[in-house]
Specification:
This protein is an alpha+beta fold and about 350 residues long. The chain has 9 helices and 9 strands. It has a 7-stranded antiparallel β-sheet. Helix 1 crosses helix 4, helix 3 packs across helix 5 and helix 4 packs across helix 5.
Length: about 350
């Protein structure tokens, strides 16, 4: 029967005389050739002191990384306040620099533990998860927001951990310490840089009905009873279900009702029957998935008479983002805006075409 003992690093059974543990890839024999191999002292579960040390350092790395993240985000909010920036703006450093620092800190604690790349990735997932839970609890972020940020957070936490694993193998304290002022400088530059981003997104649909018929369903969109197909709507992001108006013409109030009782208050600024309907959003719902991160400024419907009994309906939304990097979050904002357009305009198309079919 083979003489086996638990690895002092991971606790897995290995054969006496093994030089590299096949499970954790750590060195387990440091004695000279021919010297008897002495198994480490283990507890009742067969786990040695090195395995306990490994778990302790992994845990300390995760906790310290998240504490540092909270400190950096808090510092960014304070600097934003000094700079007079609008409350609620989340800058690029919150989603690029902070995750990188989180990864670097864990790598510092985990150096010398012999972790594999797969273990670094799994622990980075756990690190990211702790960060997102903290954001949900202490910053009031909604589930959809956390889903949206998760790819960016996981990617940069893992990159920071891998970069730290490479960097800390050189044991260059001067180089390591230089990372602190470098990170703070990047944060300060980001905070005091201008932050303003707005965009517009448009979508079109062909409706087999004349503009006069389509117009009757624009200002007051009938109740949309169909279940949403977009996966974020299914996950809980509010989606449009109806719109109502208090009157006709410029200055009239319009209410766009979303699921969960969320309402966008609007005021009509252009009223051209059969051609154009434009409205400004005067108040948007205080929803954790929307609050502080974006503001929809204006919406518009354009009707084009195609001369053959059909109408091309174009829906456009103008919005501002208060969360950065804009190149990443605008991908999500455009996708969500398009899904709102498609849900509303497809319903108008269905109502108009069904009405025309009955008339025929």
């Amino acid at each position: 029967m083979e003489n086996t003992h638990p690895c002092p690093h991971c606790g897995q059974p290995i054969t006496a005389g093994t030089i590299i543990c096949p499970y954790c890839q750590s060195s387990v024999v440091t004695s000279t050739e021919g010297q008897a191999w002495v198994p480490p002292v283990v507890d009742s579960r067969g786990v040695g002191p090195d395995a306990k040390r490994r778990r302790t350092l992994v845990a300390w790395g995760l906790l310290t990384a998240n504490a540092a993240a909270a400190a950096l985000i808090g510092l960014g909010f304070w600097l934003n306040h000094i700079n007079g920036a609008a409350a609620g703006i989340l800058i690029s450093s919150d989603f690029l620099l902070v995750p990188l620092v989180m990864g670097l800190i864990t790598a510092f604690f985990w150096r010398g533990l012999g972790l594999t790349t797969t273990e670094y990735f799994l622990y980075s997932l756990l690190n990211s998860g702790l960060g997102m839970v903290s954001a949900g609890v202490f910053m009031g972020e909604g589930v959809i927001c956390l889903i949206i940020v998760s790819p960016l957070l996981i990617c940069f936490v893992f990159l920071g951990a891998l970069g730290g694993r490479w960097l800390f193998q050189f044991s260059n304290n001067r180089l390591n310490l230089s990372l602190v002022p470098l990170a703070l400088t990047f944060l300060a530059l980001d905070v005091f840089s201008p932050h303003h981003y707005e965009n517009a997104v448009s979508d079109r649909v062909l409706i087999h009905a004349p503009p006069s018929q389509v117009w009757t369903h624009l200002a007051a969109v009938p109740v949309i009873g169909e279940k949403p197909g977009f996966w974020l709507f299914q996950m809980g992001l509010p989606y449009p279900v109806q719109s109502v108006v208090s009157g006709h013409g410029v200055g009239a109030s319009r209410r766009c009702v979303f699921s969960q009782g969320r309402v966008f208050e609007e005021r009509i600024v252009e009223w051209q029957p059969g051609r154009r309907l434009t409205f400004d959003i005067t108040r948007q719902p205080r929803d954790p998935e929307i609050l502080g991160h974006a503001r929809v400024r204006r919406g518009q419907f354009l009707l084009q008479d195609n001369g053959d009994g059909t109408t091309t309906l174009t829906g456009t939304s103008w919005y501002e983002l208060y969360v950065y990097p804009s190149w990443y979050y605008d991908l999500w904002a455009r996708s969500i805006a398009r899904q709102v357009h498609i849900r509303v305009m497809d319903h108008i198309k269905t109502v108009c075409e069904q009405g025309r079919a009955k008339a025929d």
